[in-house]
Amino acid sequence: MIKTEINYGDIYLVPKRTVVDSRKECDTSVQFGPRRFDMPVYPANMKSVVDEETCEYFARRGWFYTMHRFNVDATRFTADMQEKGLFSSISVGVNEDTDEQLRELKAAGLTPEYITLDIANGWCVKAERMIKKVKDLFPESFLIGGNIATGDAARDLESWGVDAVKAGIAGGRVCITKNKTGFHRPMVSTVLDCAQAVSIPVIADGGISEHGDLAKAIACGATMIMAGSLFAGYDESAGQIIEVDGKHLKEYFGSASEHNKGAYKNVEGKRIYVEYKGSIERLFIELKEDLQSSVSYSGGNTLAALRDAEMIYVNRY
Ligand SMILES: NC(=O)C1=CN([C@@H]2O[C@H](COP(=O)(O)OP(=O)(O)OC[C@H]3O[C@@H](n4cnc5c(N)ncnc54)[C@H](OP(=O)(O)O)[C@@H]3O)[C@@H](O)[C@H]2O)C=CC1
Ligand SMILES: Nc1nc2c(ncn2[C@@H]2O[C@H](COP(=O)(O)O)[C@@H](O)[C@H]2O)c(=O)[nH]1
């Protein structure tokens, strides 16, 4: 028996009676862990998307961020952010280098406010061990575990002690996991399944190609949305700008790409060049305007109303 599963492009939300006089009345803020953020979307913890400046920029704007984990000194990063009066949100892996990083942080007396366990399939014994270790060493930190793609995985990670799960396997723009391994799950099915399984927040990770996908992810039960390609083309993102035939492009590469790994070993990501779009300021405004409009169509004035939106499947063929 083969199940039919769906992605953001396969569904729409049914409009309800608007109860606000202006879209400006719609509140897009979200409580996530110990803090409240202006918007429920943040840039992927990838080397071509965020660097220290990007993280600082997002934190100062009241948006969430997570620094990537590739050749980053988590102790220095945490000290820098906290000295500036900002929160620290770091990523960790599952190997010995992470053990060392955690020991250094502890020895320096530092506690990052947020820690993200970032591995391709977080539903594994190595992740379980690391989750328990992080929770033991940093019980005050808000721990995000991932990635996962099923309700069963979400339940396991919740029982291992994470405070939120990050859901989305092989749906990213620079992902080649589905081509190389045959494994993938479309995002609507992923988020619905995970959000129905657990009481902790779910982060919908990857596959955002339209601004309206944010509202769809929330309607499926996501509290937060992580996006890579959405943020990759701007001055404030970390990738290099190149010029081809007089046109400016920005690099965007997968964390499991040869470019990021420095070797062709277990490669499940690629490098692409996206349109260079200048300052991210306009995107910040437009994402907020569009989400406020989504909230107004959902018949409420906060993101909670999107949770009750009716979803319809649209057969496009
Ligand atoms: N969201 C997504 O769909 C995906 C995201 N990514 C991203 O790419 C980055 C690097 O990922 P990747 O190189 O895959 O490895 P990870 O960094 O996820 O791997 C960490 C460790 O887990 C082991 N490991 C990884 N995959 C498996 C597996 N399938 N079975 C058993 N052990 C495993 C690795 O050992 P060993 O190498 O020896 O197997 C390694 O020791 C991460 O940042 C991840 O988030 C990658 C793929 C999919
Ligand atoms: N299969 C792979 N997935 C990857 C890789 N690097 C990152 N990612 C995932 O993609 C999302 C971003 O997706 P986008 O559609 O918003 O661009 C990111 O958060 C990771 O979960 C990779 O090398 N292979």
TrEMBL record:
Residues where NADP(+) binds: 202-225
Residue ranges of every copy of the IMP dehydrogenase/GMP reductase domain listed in the record: 7-309
Keywords: NADP, Oxidoreductase
Entries under InterPro entries matching the protein: Aldolase_TIM, GMP_reductase, GuaC_type_2, IMP_DH_GMPRt
SUPFAM superfamilies in UniProt: Inosine monophosphate dehydrogenase (IMPDH)
Pfam families per UniProt: IMPDH (PF00478)
Substrates-to-products reaction catalysed: IMP + NH4(+) + NADP(+) = GMP + NADPH + 2 H(+)
A molecular-function term among this protein's GO annotations: GMP reductase activity
Active site: C175 (thioimidate intermediate)
EC number: 1.7.1.7
Record carries keyword Nucleus: no
The protein's role, per its UniProt record: Catalyzes the irreversible NADPH-dependent deamination of GMP to IMP. It functions in the conversion of nucleobase, nucleoside and nucleotide derivatives of G to A nucleotides, and in maintaining the intracellular balance of A and G nucleotides.
Family recorded in the similarity comment: Belongs to the IMPDH/GMPR family. GuaC type 2 subfamily.
Name of this protein: GMP reductase
Species this protein is from: Crenobacter cavernae
Gene: guaC
